[in-house]
Write a structure and sequence with these properties.
- The protein contains three helices and seven strands; from the N terminus they run βααβαβββββ.
- It is α+β, with helices and mostly antiparallel strands and 113 residues long.
- The protein has two domains: 61 residues, Orthogonal Bundle (Arc Repressor Mutant, subunit A); 39 residues, no CATH class.
- Helix 1 crosses helix 2.
- The longest helix has 14 residues.
- The protein is elongated and about 60 Å long.
- The relative contact order is 0.14.
């Protein structure tokens, strides 16, 4: 699930509890983010404080990793979680998008047109 960095005010400090409430995520997720590289304000042990700008940058980098560059004939596969080509003859156009079956796993694939 993508987290929206716009919910965070960049000039404000957040505790783990405030951060989890603001972003509607679990406290364990906040601790996992700290282990993954989210910077905390040094010197503060209890409560742990995090600058809003650091959270925004961390979320933007995390969301950017999920984006894929697709070629013209590729679709996004929900099972493989990557861009793939469609199985021949399975492409159907439906209200502004194309749906088909994945060549690799035979799962549903979609492309917005």
């Amino acid at each position: 699930m993508k987290t929206n960095p716009h919910k965070i005010k960049k000039h404000m400090n957040y505790t783990i509890k405030e951060l989890s409430k603001t972003l509607s995520i679990n406290k364990k997720t906040c601790f996992r983010w700290i282990e993954e590289g989210l910077k905390i304000i040094p010197g503060g042990k209890n409560p742990i404080l995090i600058m809003g700008i650091e959270v925004q940058e961390f979320i933007r980098k995390k969301n950017a990793k999920r984006k894929f560059k697709m070629n013209r004939n590729q679709f996004y596969c929900f099972h493989c979680k990557k861009p793939v080509y469609a199985k021949r003859g399975s492409i159907k156009k439906m209200s502004g998008r194309k749906t088909a079956l994945c060549r690799v796993c035979k799962g549903k694939i979609v492309r917005i047109i």
